[in-house]
Amino acid sequence: MLTDECPFIIDATLKGGSFRKKTVIPTQRMNKKKWYRGKWRVNAEVASLVIEAVHAVTKRGIEIREEGKDYEFFSYHPAAFWAEEKAALEAQVALILSLFPEAKVDCQWEEFFEENWQENWRKYFRPRRISSKLIVLPAWEKYKPEKGEIALFIEPATAFGTGTHETTRLCLKAMEIFFPLEHPQSLLDVGTGTGILAIYGAKLGIKEIVAVDIDPLAIEAAQKNCQLNKVKNIKLIKGSITKGIGSFDWVVANLETKIILPIAELLTSCACKTLILSGILTKEIEEVKAKIRRCCREVFSEGEWACLVF
Ligand code: SAM
Protein backbone atom coordinates (compact mmCIF):
# COMPACT_ATOMS: atom_id res chain seq x y z
CA MET A 1 0.00 0.00 0.00
CA LEU A 2 1.29 3.46 -0.77
CA THR A 3 1.55 5.61 2.26
CA ASP A 4 1.73 9.34 2.50
CA GLU A 5 1.51 12.19 4.88
CA CYS A 6 -1.41 14.40 4.20
CA PRO A 7 -2.50 17.31 6.29
CA PHE A 8 -6.19 16.49 6.41
CA ILE A 9 -9.10 14.41 5.37
CA ILE A 10 -12.49 15.75 4.47
CA ASP A 11 -15.38 13.44 5.29
CA ALA A 12 -16.20 11.75 2.06
CA THR A 13 -18.83 9.32 0.91
CA LEU A 14 -16.19 6.65 0.88
CA LYS A 15 -15.30 6.39 4.50
CA GLY A 16 -12.32 5.12 6.39
CA GLY A 17 -9.66 6.59 4.10
CA SER A 18 -6.79 7.53 6.32
CA PHE A 19 -3.38 9.03 5.91
CA ARG A 20 -0.08 7.68 7.13
CA LYS A 21 3.41 9.03 7.52
CA LYS A 22 5.68 9.19 4.53
CA THR A 23 9.05 10.48 3.51
CA VAL A 24 9.04 14.16 2.65
CA ILE A 25 8.97 14.82 -1.06
CA PRO A 26 11.50 17.39 -2.25
CA THR A 27 9.71 20.07 -4.21
CA GLN A 28 10.70 22.99 -6.37
CA ARG A 29 9.56 25.37 -3.64
CA MET A 30 11.29 25.40 -0.28
CA ASN A 31 9.46 23.45 2.42
CA LYS A 32 6.25 23.09 0.48
CA LYS A 33 5.24 19.66 -0.68
CA LYS A 34 3.99 19.26 -4.19
CA TRP A 35 0.75 17.39 -4.83
CA TYR A 36 -1.48 16.66 -7.77
CA ARG A 37 -5.22 17.04 -7.59
CA GLY A 38 -7.48 15.07 -9.91
CA LYS A 39 -10.69 16.94 -10.61
CA TRP A 40 -13.11 14.21 -11.62
CA ARG A 41 -16.45 14.55 -13.35
CA VAL A 42 -18.33 11.32 -13.80
CA ASN A 43 -21.94 10.46 -14.34
CA ALA A 44 -24.01 8.88 -11.59
CA GLU A 45 -24.13 5.48 -13.32
CA VAL A 46 -20.45 4.83 -12.64
CA ALA A 47 -19.73 7.31 -9.83
CA SER A 48 -19.52 4.73 -7.02
CA LEU A 49 -17.29 2.46 -9.15
CA VAL A 50 -14.89 5.28 -10.01
CA ILE A 51 -14.81 6.58 -6.42
CA GLU A 52 -14.19 3.05 -5.14
CA ALA A 53 -11.35 2.64 -7.67
CA VAL A 54 -9.74 5.96 -6.69
CA HIS A 55 -9.98 5.06 -3.03
CA ALA A 56 -8.54 1.59 -3.63
CA VAL A 57 -5.56 3.05 -5.47
CA THR A 58 -4.81 6.02 -3.19
CA LYS A 59 -6.16 4.97 0.24
CA ARG A 60 -6.71 8.66 0.82
CA GLY A 61 -9.73 10.82 1.43
CA ILE A 62 -11.81 11.94 -1.50
CA GLU A 63 -13.47 15.31 -1.55
CA ILE A 64 -16.97 15.06 -2.96
CA ARG A 65 -17.97 18.45 -4.37
CA GLU A 66 -21.19 17.67 -6.16
CA GLU A 67 -23.62 14.75 -6.22
CA GLY A 68 -26.52 14.36 -8.62
CA LYS A 69 -26.81 13.45 -12.28
CA ASP A 70 -23.08 14.09 -12.44
CA TYR A 71 -20.62 13.69 -9.61
CA GLU A 72 -17.65 15.96 -9.14
CA PHE A 73 -14.92 14.98 -6.72
CA PHE A 74 -11.25 15.62 -6.07
CA SER A 75 -8.56 13.02 -5.51
CA TYR A 76 -5.18 13.94 -4.03
CA HIS A 77 -1.79 12.52 -4.96
CA PRO A 78 1.67 13.32 -3.56
CA ALA A 79 3.94 14.21 -6.50
CA ALA A 80 6.19 11.21 -5.84
CA PHE A 81 3.30 8.74 -6.33
CA TRP A 82 1.32 10.60 -8.92
CA ALA A 83 2.62 8.95 -12.12
CA GLU A 84 2.16 5.47 -10.66
CA GLU A 85 -1.30 6.22 -9.29
CA LYS A 86 -2.40 7.97 -12.48
CA ALA A 87 -1.40 4.91 -14.52
CA ALA A 88 -3.26 2.57 -12.14
CA LEU A 89 -6.34 4.83 -12.28
CA GLU A 90 -6.26 4.99 -16.08
CA ALA A 91 -6.28 1.18 -16.18
CA GLN A 92 -9.23 1.07 -13.75
CA VAL A 93 -11.15 3.68 -15.73
CA ALA A 94 -10.53 1.78 -18.98
CA LEU A 95 -11.98 -1.32 -17.32
CA ILE A 96 -15.05 0.56 -16.08
CA LEU A 97 -15.57 2.10 -19.52
CA SER A 98 -15.34 -1.32 -21.16
CA LEU A 99 -18.27 -2.39 -18.95
CA PHE A 100 -20.18 0.90 -19.29
CA PRO A 101 -19.28 2.26 -22.74
CA GLU A 102 -21.85 5.09 -22.46
CA ALA A 103 -20.42 6.35 -19.19
CA LYS A 104 -18.68 9.70 -18.83
CA VAL A 105 -15.44 9.75 -16.85
CA ASP A 106 -13.35 12.88 -17.09
CA CYS A 107 -10.35 13.84 -15.00
CA GLN A 108 -8.35 17.08 -15.13
CA TRP A 109 -5.05 17.13 -13.26
CA GLU A 110 -3.57 20.15 -11.56
CA GLU A 111 -0.43 20.67 -9.57
CA PHE A 112 -0.50 22.49 -6.25
CA PHE A 113 1.51 23.02 -3.12
CA GLU A 114 0.40 21.83 0.27
CA GLU A 115 0.05 25.28 1.75
CA ASN A 116 -2.85 26.14 -0.58
CA TRP A 117 -4.52 22.88 0.10
CA GLN A 118 -4.52 23.45 3.81
CA GLU A 119 -6.03 26.86 3.23
CA ASN A 120 -8.77 25.32 1.11
CA TRP A 121 -9.54 22.67 3.65
CA ARG A 122 -10.06 25.25 6.36
CA LYS A 123 -12.38 27.04 3.96
CA TYR A 124 -14.58 23.95 3.58
CA PHE A 125 -14.81 22.83 7.21
CA ARG A 126 -17.27 25.36 8.52
CA PRO A 127 -19.48 25.47 11.60
CA ARG A 128 -22.41 23.17 11.06
CA ARG A 129 -25.69 23.35 12.92
CA ILE A 130 -26.93 19.80 13.47
CA SER A 131 -30.06 20.70 15.45
CA SER A 132 -31.40 23.60 17.49
CA LYS A 133 -29.40 22.14 20.40
CA LEU A 134 -26.15 21.14 18.70
CA ILE A 135 -23.55 22.94 16.62
CA VAL A 136 -20.24 21.43 15.44
CA LEU A 137 -17.39 23.85 14.83
CA PRO A 138 -13.80 23.64 13.63
CA ALA A 139 -11.34 23.83 16.52
CA TRP A 140 -10.13 27.25 15.40
CA GLU A 141 -13.58 28.93 15.51
CA LYS A 142 -14.58 31.11 18.46
CA TYR A 143 -18.12 30.48 19.62
CA LYS A 144 -19.98 30.89 22.88
CA PRO A 145 -22.93 28.51 23.07
CA GLU A 146 -26.32 29.84 24.13
CA LYS A 147 -27.92 28.47 27.27
CA GLY A 148 -29.00 24.87 26.63
CA GLU A 149 -26.95 24.67 23.45
CA ILE A 150 -24.05 22.23 22.98
CA ALA A 151 -21.04 23.28 20.87
CA LEU A 152 -18.59 20.56 19.84
CA PHE A 153 -15.17 21.75 18.69
CA ILE A 154 -13.45 19.34 16.34
CA GLU A 155 -9.90 19.22 15.01
CA PRO A 156 -10.21 16.38 12.53
CA ALA A 157 -6.46 15.93 11.83
CA THR A 158 -6.60 12.77 9.72
CA ALA A 159 -9.75 11.25 11.21
CA PHE A 160 -13.35 11.05 10.02
CA GLY A 161 -16.09 12.88 11.89
CA THR A 162 -16.64 16.61 11.45
CA GLY A 163 -20.40 16.49 11.22
CA THR A 164 -20.27 17.36 7.54
CA HIS A 165 -21.14 13.80 6.55
CA GLU A 166 -24.71 12.52 6.66
CA THR A 167 -23.79 9.35 8.55
CA THR A 168 -22.35 11.33 11.47
CA ARG A 169 -25.22 13.82 11.51
CA LEU A 170 -27.80 11.02 11.56
CA CYS A 171 -26.11 9.42 14.57
CA LEU A 172 -25.93 12.73 16.41
CA LYS A 173 -29.62 13.32 15.75
CA ALA A 174 -30.57 9.80 16.89
CA MET A 175 -28.58 10.30 20.09
CA GLU A 176 -30.26 13.65 20.72
CA ILE A 177 -33.77 12.27 20.21
CA PHE A 178 -33.29 9.09 22.25
CA PHE A 179 -31.28 10.60 25.11
CA PRO A 180 -34.21 12.21 26.98
CA LEU A 181 -36.24 9.00 26.56
CA GLU A 182 -33.62 6.70 28.06
CA HIS A 183 -31.01 8.69 30.00
CA PRO A 184 -28.28 6.10 29.34
CA GLN A 185 -25.47 5.90 31.87
CA SER A 186 -22.91 4.21 29.63
CA LEU A 187 -21.93 4.35 25.96
CA LEU A 188 -19.66 2.38 23.65
CA ASP A 189 -18.66 4.19 20.44
CA VAL A 190 -17.30 1.73 17.87
CA GLY A 191 -15.21 3.47 15.18
CA THR A 192 -14.93 6.78 17.00
CA GLY A 193 -12.88 8.67 14.37
CA THR A 194 -12.50 12.22 15.73
CA GLY A 195 -14.44 11.11 18.82
CA ILE A 196 -17.42 13.25 17.81
CA LEU A 197 -20.16 10.82 18.90
CA ALA A 198 -18.47 9.88 22.18
CA ILE A 199 -17.88 13.55 22.98
CA TYR A 200 -21.51 14.36 22.21
CA GLY A 201 -22.54 11.50 24.51
CA ALA A 202 -20.41 13.02 27.27
CA LYS A 203 -21.88 16.48 26.67
CA LEU A 204 -25.41 15.04 26.84
CA GLY A 205 -24.53 13.65 30.26
CA ILE A 206 -23.53 10.00 29.77
CA LYS A 207 -21.16 9.14 32.59
CA GLU A 208 -19.15 6.13 31.45
CA ILE A 209 -17.92 6.11 27.86
CA VAL A 210 -15.58 3.82 25.94
CA ALA A 211 -14.58 4.70 22.38
CA VAL A 212 -12.62 2.36 20.11
CA ASP A 213 -11.04 2.72 16.69
CA ILE A 214 -8.69 0.47 14.76
CA ASP A 215 -6.87 3.52 13.38
CA PRO A 216 -4.22 4.84 15.81
CA LEU A 217 -4.43 8.27 14.17
CA ALA A 218 -8.15 8.41 14.94
CA ILE A 219 -7.42 7.64 18.59
CA GLU A 220 -4.84 10.45 18.60
CA ALA A 221 -7.37 12.86 17.08
CA ALA A 222 -10.10 11.75 19.49
CA GLN A 223 -7.75 12.31 22.42
CA LYS A 224 -7.06 15.87 21.28
CA ASN A 225 -10.77 16.53 20.76
CA CYS A 226 -11.61 15.27 24.25
CA GLN A 227 -9.14 17.83 25.61
CA LEU A 228 -10.45 20.54 23.32
CA ASN A 229 -13.99 19.92 24.55
CA LYS A 230 -12.89 19.49 28.18
CA VAL A 231 -14.32 15.99 28.37
CA LYS A 232 -12.61 13.61 30.79
CA ASN A 233 -14.85 10.54 31.01
CA ILE A 234 -14.05 8.88 27.69
CA LYS A 235 -11.74 5.87 27.68
CA LEU A 236 -10.12 5.58 24.26
CA ILE A 237 -8.93 2.20 23.04
CA LYS A 238 -7.05 1.42 19.83
CA GLY A 239 -8.78 -1.66 18.49
CA SER A 240 -12.26 -2.90 17.82
CA ILE A 241 -15.19 -4.25 19.79
CA THR A 242 -14.33 -7.48 21.59
CA LYS A 243 -16.28 -9.99 23.68
CA GLY A 244 -14.63 -8.77 26.85
CA ILE A 245 -15.33 -5.08 26.34
CA GLY A 246 -18.38 -5.17 28.63
CA SER A 247 -21.97 -4.09 28.26
CA PHE A 248 -23.25 -0.58 27.82
CA ASP A 249 -26.67 1.07 27.87
CA TRP A 250 -25.97 2.39 24.40
CA VAL A 251 -23.71 1.21 21.59
CA VAL A 252 -23.24 3.58 18.63
CA ALA A 253 -21.37 2.53 15.52
CA ASN A 254 -21.01 4.63 12.41
CA LEU A 255 -19.30 2.07 10.20
CA GLU A 256 -20.05 0.68 6.79
CA THR A 257 -22.54 -2.16 6.36
CA LYS A 258 -19.77 -4.49 5.23
CA ILE A 259 -18.00 -3.79 8.55
CA ILE A 260 -21.18 -3.94 10.65
CA LEU A 261 -22.44 -7.29 9.38
CA PRO A 262 -19.57 -9.50 10.63
CA ILE A 263 -19.66 -7.86 14.09
CA ALA A 264 -23.45 -7.51 14.29
CA GLU A 265 -23.86 -10.09 17.06
CA LEU A 266 -21.14 -8.56 19.16
CA LEU A 267 -22.59 -5.07 18.73
CA THR A 268 -26.03 -6.34 19.75
CA SER A 269 -24.82 -8.29 22.75
CA CYS A 270 -22.90 -5.29 24.13
CA ALA A 271 -25.94 -2.99 23.92
CA CYS A 272 -28.17 -3.40 27.01
CA LYS A 273 -30.72 -0.84 25.91
CA THR A 274 -30.11 0.63 22.50
CA LEU A 275 -27.97 0.02 19.46
CA ILE A 276 -27.54 2.91 17.01
CA LEU A 277 -26.05 1.93 13.66
CA SER A 278 -25.10 4.36 10.91
CA GLY A 279 -23.11 4.30 7.69
CA ILE A 280 -25.81 2.15 6.11
CA LEU A 281 -27.07 2.84 2.62
CA THR A 282 -30.87 2.90 2.40
CA LYS A 283 -30.68 -0.05 -0.01
CA GLU A 284 -28.85 -2.04 2.70
CA ILE A 285 -31.39 -1.45 5.48
CA GLU A 286 -33.14 -4.81 5.16
CA GLU A 287 -29.84 -6.70 5.14
CA VAL A 288 -28.80 -5.03 8.39
CA LYS A 289 -32.23 -5.50 10.00
CA ALA A 290 -32.10 -9.21 9.18
CA LYS A 291 -28.77 -9.57 10.93
CA ILE A 292 -29.71 -7.68 14.12
CA ARG A 293 -32.11 -9.85 16.03
CA ARG A 294 -33.97 -6.98 17.64
CA CYS A 295 -36.90 -4.82 16.76
CA CYS A 296 -35.88 -1.79 14.70
CA ARG A 297 -37.40 1.15 16.53
CA GLU A 298 -36.50 4.00 14.23
CA VAL A 299 -34.95 4.65 10.85
CA PHE A 300 -33.45 8.09 10.23
CA SER A 301 -32.33 8.86 6.72
CA GLU A 302 -30.72 11.62 4.71
CA GLY A 303 -30.20 11.13 0.97
CA GLU A 304 -28.92 7.63 0.40
CA TRP A 305 -27.79 7.17 4.02
CA ALA A 306 -29.66 5.63 6.91
CA CYS A 307 -29.19 5.28 10.64
CA LEU A 308 -31.08 2.49 12.39
CA VAL A 309 -32.03 2.44 16.06
CA PHE A 310 -32.61 -1.01 17.58
N1 SAM B 1 -17.68 7.95 14.65
C1 SAM B 1 -17.22 8.93 13.70
C2 SAM B 1 -18.41 9.58 13.02
O1 SAM B 1 -19.54 9.18 13.26
O2 SAM B 1 -18.20 10.52 12.24
C3 SAM B 1 -16.29 8.29 12.67
C4 SAM B 1 -16.94 7.24 11.83
S1 SAM B 1 -15.92 6.71 10.48
C5 SAM B 1 -17.14 6.54 9.29
C6 SAM B 1 -15.57 5.03 10.86
C7 SAM B 1 -14.39 4.84 11.78
O3 SAM B 1 -14.39 3.47 12.13
C8 SAM B 1 -13.03 5.12 11.19
O4 SAM B 1 -12.33 5.99 12.05
C9 SAM B 1 -12.36 3.75 11.10
O5 SAM B 1 -10.97 3.80 11.36
C10 SAM B 1 -13.08 2.97 12.17
N2 SAM B 1 -13.21 1.52 11.97
C11 SAM B 1 -13.36 0.84 10.80
N3 SAM B 1 -13.54 -0.47 11.06
C12 SAM B 1 -13.53 -0.62 12.42
C13 SAM B 1 -13.68 -1.72 13.29
N4 SAM B 1 -13.89 -2.95 12.84
N5 SAM B 1 -13.61 -1.50 14.62
C14 SAM B 1 -13.39 -0.26 15.10
N6 SAM B 1 -13.22 0.83 14.32
C15 SAM B 1 -13.32 0.66 13.00
Query: Sheet bearing the most strands, described?
Result: 7 strands, mixed
Query: How large is the share of residues in beta strands?
Result: 25-35%
Put simply, the count of helices is 9
How do the helices and strands follow one another from N- to C-terminus? EHEEHEHEEEHEHEHEEHHEHEE
Radius of gyration: 20 Å
**In total, how many beta strands?**
14
Structural class: alpha/beta
Principal-axes geometry comes out as: globular
Low-confidence stretches: 1-30
Which hetero ligands occur in this complex? S-adenosylmethionine
Helix content: 25-40%
Q: How are the strands of the biggest sheet laid out side by side?
A: 10-9-8-11-12-14-13
Give the arrangement of secondary structure elements.
Layout: E1 34-43, H1 44-58, E2 63-66, E3 70-78, H2 79-99, E4 105-113, H3 114-124, E5 128-129, E6 134-138, E7 150-154, H4 166-182, E8 186-190, H5 196-204, E9 208-213, H6 216-228, E10 234-238, E11 248-254, H7 257-260, H8 264-270, E12 271-281, H9 285-291, E13 298-302, E14 305-309
Parallel strand pairs: 6-7, 8-9, 8-11, 9-10, 11-12
Antiparallel strand pairs: 1-3, 1-4, 2-3, 5-6, 12-14, 13-14
Helix pairs in contact: 1-2, 4-5
Bound molecules: S-adenosylmethionine.
